[in-house]
Amino acid sequence: MAAAGAAATHLEVARGKRAALFFAAVAIVLGLPLWWKTTETYRASLPYSQISGLNALQLRLMVPVTVVFTRESVPLDDQEKLPFTVVHEREIPLKYKMKIKCRFQKAYRRALDHEEEALSSGSVQEAEAMLDEPQEQAEGSLTVYVISEHSSLLPQDMMSYIGPKRTAVVRGIMHREAFNIIGRRIVQVAQAMSLTEDVLAAALADHLPEDKWSAEKRRPLKSSLGYEITFSLLNPDPKSHDVYWDIEGAVRRYVQPFLNALGAAGNFSVDSQILYYAMLGVNPRFDSASSSYYLDMHSLPHVINPVESRLGSSAASLYPVLNFLLYVPELAHSPLYIQDKDGAPVATNAFHSPRWGGIMVYNVDSKTYNASVLPVRVEVDMVRVMEVFLAQLLFGIAQPQLPPKCLLSGPTSEGLMTWELDRLLWARSVENLATATTTLTSLAQLLGKISNIVIKDDVASEVYKAVAAVQKSAEELASGHLASAFVASQEAVTSSELAFFDPSLLHLLYFPDDQKFAIYIPLFLPMAVPILLSLVKIFLETRKSWRKPEKTD
Amino acid sequence: MAVTDSLSRAATVLATVLLLSFGSVAASHIEVCTSRFWFNYRHVANTLSVYRSVKRLGIPDSHIVLMLADDMACNPRNPKPATVFSHKNMELNVYGDDVEVDYRSYEVTVENFLRVLTGRIPPSTPRSKRLLSDDRSNILIYMTGHGGNGFLKFQDSEEITNIELADAFEQMWQKRRYNELLFIIDTCQGASMYERFYSPNIMALASSQVGEDSLSHQPDPAIGVHLMDRYTFYVLEFLEEINPASQTNMNDLFQVCPKSLCVSTPGHRTDLFQRDPKNVLITDFFGSVRKVEITTETIKLQQDSEIMESSYKEDQMDEKLMEPLKYAEQLPVAQIIHQKPKLKDWHPPGGFILGLWALIIMVFFKTYGIKHMKFIF
Q: What DSSP state is assigned to residue B87?
């Protein structure tokens, strides 16, 4: 009876041990991984190795140059060697992690008959008119014509000429080392028309570690995918002045062609408004010598802020806004001049603030007051105004550094030469690539540092797109296709910004350690304690039963 | 009075946040008040006073993100409606006519605050609710409310920890959303909030050390609540003497409100900041001076005078020929008035209610036995 009872309890004990072990096994094998999996932050896979590879990317900016030699430009035996290609490659010495190499691929060839004819005409403008090819040259490429040393196409003291449409003219030389000398001149001219070190330094100014406080190197116009340009007319004294400005016509005639030329560089939207009773925040001082009012240079910075709050902007657009204000001073403060630091009135009567816009003061002609019936009708001379505003807008584009003894052609109807646009595109492409790389690298670093950021699948796909676009843009730059390289670089920037600023990345999953304990202990402790205690008991008993046979033996 | 008040302050939490950022010249500010309820009037007054000083020094509203968690001016318990006073005897109404509150009431949450800081805002957010700063902006963040060791309470229901704040600043730094950042916090144990910062170019000021309470300044018998906190009161006195051209530096700001006046010990942290505080002007963060240049060159444009005149004439003619504008019917009032009221459809009770009743009945019968059923039905 006792043996049966003992056997029964032994069976129960064994069953109990198996049950406890089974519980523990389920808890550890199934429960623990399940809990771990369900509480980890979701992170779609990202190409970390490719992103770190982007930092070491070598950018090769290729400028394809076609060099056309006329008959008397170089010695005969040198002419026999044509056509061939010379490559001039130079590394830009910038302290930036991406290495940038500038490569001028010069394809030398002889001039065709119609080109010879054109280049023997009287002046450069005629020559250009005759040389105007039916198809536009690709963005980024240049054509240089080499004329003879004594040709009268250029003024005698000028060695080279830069035209408005990606063409240039350089004097040849009758010398043994003709090709080398001419080659250097061509590179100088080509650099002025496309890439120089300061253009790239300015483009990368935000990414270079040194000279953080240097104002000159920083570009005035912040690079962005688009801009909103607002023209505002401020009329603080409508009782005296009835101001009329034909802004629509002026925008159509003067600003739109310029924006069309710049259209490749971004989305520009233009709007205009008229503000009444908008005062400047500063009281102008009276100058009895000229019986006029003036604003001196030190008070100009304080003008902008009070007026900015009235300007408004379209709520939907997130592009940076450039404000151009035309201020018609009130009758009591007319005429109003802006004085520079020497006390002389400024010819344009305008000032600007980088990255914000500009303000021009338009004084009403005193003759119009003779009618003596207030309000006086004021017709704004839009040409004068637009000349100033466009200059302020163009200020965002750096001025070229011309080689010595070089003649620059006059401005075109759009106000911008095509190779100036190319320079802008080169600079923007490099800058976009730098920005996209920085954004992707920072995202990867952030993910490493902060463990609670969630990466969803669509964010991951944006990152992949951005990486692919950066690589494509670098390839296109290396093969000299500027237009597609710029488009790819813009895509890279858009995708990387979308990925970085996606609202889903916000980490609100941070829990301090004591909160984590407070949540898990009531759940796990009641379950874990019996299991652990029974496991301990089983282990001790098993150890005792192992020792027992030894003792008896 | 001050002691009991400090205890009640420790019990409730309000926070006001003021964020300001300055761009290359412009600074941006974020000002946050995270406190709710009438007795936390002083936090809203704190924030609005800082907001007012900063506007006086030239920052436009477009560069200020103001978050107020409760509306004190229009609170039903306000004896002087539409005003928020910051000095005793109602000297100074900081609410004024041109206060632009960007995040109000229940919109002031930890999530929205972090979204504003990191820029991860849904695309439909208007410009005024965003922090439009770039790598040249100096940002000032002012927060006030109730806090503890390592956290700041928002809306009496959630908290932001110092680690979250430090991570948010790191994300701002990675994307170069600021050039320099000044963080001012006026809460109990405020120094704990800046302990965990690790991003460069951050300077932080707090009204009290860990383990200390920040105290309020003056109660007002007419309004019935405390109007301001001590630290902010003395900071504002200091700011009243600053004008856009002054040369006072940060070291002077660190001296504001010594222990004798504030009872708590204000603290500051400058190890992450690159420049020496004595070279940092107050106006770098609190004022805004734009860099301007005289325009000396113009572009030559061709005159199209004939076209101008003809188009002017065309415009004149167009004006006369235009028909009077008509507007579409905005609201079909007639239809609405004569509509019959819609009968509400009857819906059976939802699954939850059914389940709940089933559970209750089952428990009842299990407990007392099925034999009681006949007495029920």
A: S
Catalytic residue, from B43, B63, B146, B226: name it. Answer: B146
Query: Residue B13 in contact with residue B156, Cβ under 8 Å?
Result: yes
The pLDDT, as a whole number, for residue B183 is: 94
What are the phi and psi torsion angles at B17 (to 5°)?
-125, 135
Token pair recorded at residue A279: 């005062």
A377-432 residue pLDDT tens: 888 888 888 888 888 887 655 566 666 777 776 666 556 677 777 888 888 888 88
Contact status of B74 with chain A (Cβ, < 8 Å): no
DSSP A399: P
pLDDT surpassing 90 at residue A94: no
Lowest mean pLDDT among A102-111, A220-229, B71-80, B141-150: A220-229
State both tokens at A508: 């609100």
In the chain, the amino acid numbered A398 is A
Write out chain A residues lying below 8 Å of B175, CB-based.
Answer: 439, 442, 500-501
Q: What does the DSSP assignment read for B323-373? A: PPP-------HHHHHTPPPPPPPP-PPPHHHHHHHHHHHHHHHHHH-GGGH
CB pairs under 8 A between A and B: 146
- Chain B hits for A318, CB-CB cut-off 8 Å, are 127
Give every CB contact of residue B119 below 8 A, 6+ residues apart in sequence: A501, B130, B131, B172, B175, B177
pLDDT at position A264 is 75
Burial status of residue A404 (CB atoms within 10 A of its CB: 0-12, 13-18, 19 or more):
exposed
Full-model pTM = 0.76
